[in-house]
Write a structure and sequence with these properties.
Layout: E1 5-7, E2 13-17, H1 18-21, E3 31-35, E4 46-54, E5 64-70, E6 77-87, E7 102-109, E8 121-123, E9 134-142, E10 154-162
Antiparallel strand pairs: 1-4, 2-3, 3-10, 4-9, 5-8, 5-10, 6-7, 6-9
């Protein structure tokens, strides 16, 4: 899943170059999704990005979304949220759904060392996806959830749709 996305309107998330975030070695030049506008306080709202991806031709089931993220802090938890609707068929389903098909969350502890990658996964329902579906999604951090205790920003490098034989 690439970030073919747009940030929401909360002001709590945007894309920024990794070298501006970490700076020490200046080798990383890719863009990261920043979740949380203040690196000294936990966000208090649910915020993130909207996007879409196509379910691959070789999809067979048992999907998970892998979240690769990093923080400059070394304590606390982050609550990630993945809401989605799969749109398939020819003239059979709408690109304007009234509600998400499924909403899933995962709470992950920040790595104990600053700038070390964490990779939580969140399972989604395999029967909701089919080959060639376009999946509309919202991905973000739920700063309004009491379990989100990291007092600062989380930077997401990548989301990956991973699946295996059922």
């Amino acid at each position: 899943m690439g970030f073919a996305t747009r940030p929401d309107d909360t002001g709590e998330c945007w894309f920024e170059p990794a070298d501006l975030v970490f700076g020490a070695n200046d080798l990383a030049r890719q863009f990261l999704l920043r979740l949380g506008s203040n690196n000294a306080a936990a966000p208090t709202v649910k915020h993130g990005v909207y996007g879409s991806f196509r379910v691959p031709k070789n999809y067979v089931g048992t999907p998970v979304v892998v979240i690769e993220w990093v923080a400059t802090l070394t304590s606390g938890n982050v609550v990630f949220d993945f809401d989605y609707t799969a749109v398939g068929g020819d003239g059979a389903e709408t690109f304007d759904p009234a509600a998400w098909q499924e909403s899933v969350t995962v709470t992950d502890a920040v790595a104990g060392t600053a700038r070390f990658k964490s990779t939580p996964t969140v399972a989604i329902t395999g029967g909701n996806l089919a080959v060639d579906d376009i999946v509309e999604f919202f991905f973000g951090r739920d700063g309004a959830d009491g379990a989100d205790t990291m007092a600062g920003s989380a930077w997401v490098a990548e989301l990956i749709l991973q699946y295996a034989d059922a």
